[in-house]
């Protein structure tokens, strides 16, 4: 199979159309920023008398996730972390988790003018989820004096865009076609795709391996080391990434096609994605279920939400094959890489 398409213009046009239709527009971004400002005031007021008696105080309230990384879609949730300053907190233990849940429960009972507010106690990271003025949101707690890893990971993704400006285009396109849908009746995922953060990490590892960007974890180890992290907005000066931006010649379509080839030739059923390494690490045994990613910003495996990596791997192969066969036919190409086509394929495979 060729490493490139004979003509990628049709695919590139489709990618740009999907990106334009699904990216967060300036009005939506401004609205979410306004909602965030309201949330920050609401949380301060709700906790101003609750925290001091137990020796705690809010240090910062910051957004993170796709909205903070400029890779959000219009329907993306607003993720907010409440940083509560106190010494003596280290790794997550039962006592720390219990305290986080106490704070979230107080917010649950005292925040007003929020819709469908719910406290999820049992999540990996306890959260308060709901919406405000129809903007979906997740609130979480960070305890300690250090900078939360979710903030550093958001800055990391922003830095990737500094080196590779087409990163948001690729991510929003990939997130759109591999969008997990929640069944309104069962409240469970209808289709088994990696979550947004996992897809972003897969793209970043590919970009590093193919030398589109440097390995930021190695080249700028001091700046992305959580133990040394600061609240600085920019981790890397734009002048340091200029050389990489200037040598960018390939279209998003060319890069996306190579991305598919990369994970077909190096399937996640056989390899571990280690973000600090340029090359993938071979698994000791074939694993049709797990997608394993070692990420410095997440002690847990970010790929753990994927139930069956074999199905996703087959979906990538099906997608690449269809693009290769129909890349000169605009109508057929759109049909073969549409969300409905992929969902139908994955649904069929899951029933086997």
UniProtKB/TrEMBL annotation:
GO-annotated molecular function: RNA uridylyltransferase activity
InterPro entries assigned: MTPAP-like_central, NT_sf
Domain Poly(A) RNA polymerase mitochondrial-like central palm, residue spans: 11-142
GO BP terms in the entry: RNA 3'-end processing
Protein name as annotated: Poly(A) RNA polymerase mitochondrial-like central palm domain-containing protein
Organism: Caenorhabditis angaria
